[in-house]
Amino acid sequence: MFTVQTEAYQLEGILKEKEELCRKLQFQSAESEQDSVRQLNQNRKSEELLEQYRCEVQEFKLKHRKQRMKFENQLLHLIEQHKNLHSVFSPERLSDEITSAENRRSQLLAAGKCPLLTHAHKLLILYMHDFSVYVCQGLVVIRTQEQGRQVWECKHKASFY
Predict the structure, then answer these.
(1) Across-strand partners of 149?
(2) What is the DSSP string of 82-117?
């Protein structure tokens, strides 16, 4: 009987140890499950954030591409304008343009509508690369350099005498 009681006592101790171990394992299992759920949520949020960043990068690239295309179109338009202006005010046609401008100036003088420098004169002056002085109907236009840029000055011919 003594051995049966001792054995029962030992078995009760083993039972308590196993129950304690079972509680510990259940607690660890619950913690692992919570960690797993937390990690899944964190992964989902990270993927959403990553997708958001991808969209923002794509949007930025598209915006930059639009700006670049707009700039290229403006540049092409400007080049085309320059080609058109160059064909009109080329050095080969300069003497004809000067004569034409002087004739227009004479007509304006005769009509009493003589602005100091007409728009046509301004354009001619801008494209006169090889000349530093331009004389037209009593006006002298002088090209000078100030601080690395061209400056055009218009004076009446009489002020030089």
Answers:
(1) 146
(2) HHHHHHHS-GGGHHHHHHHHHHHHHHHHHHT---SS
pLDDT number for residue 81: 82
Kindly report whether the global pTM for this prediction surpasses the value 0.90. Answer: no
Domain ranges of the chain: 1-88, 91-160
Would you place residue 13 in the very low, low, confident or very high pLDDT band (cuts 50, 70, 90)? very high
- Can you give the pLDDT at residue 161? 42
Angle, vertex CA 103, rays to CA 98 and CA 105, nearest 5: 90
Residue 128: Cβ within 10 Å count: 19
Return left, alpha or beta for 145; rule: phi > 0 is left, psi -120 to 50 is alpha, else beta. Answer: beta
Q: Which two tokens stand for residue 9?
A: 């006592």
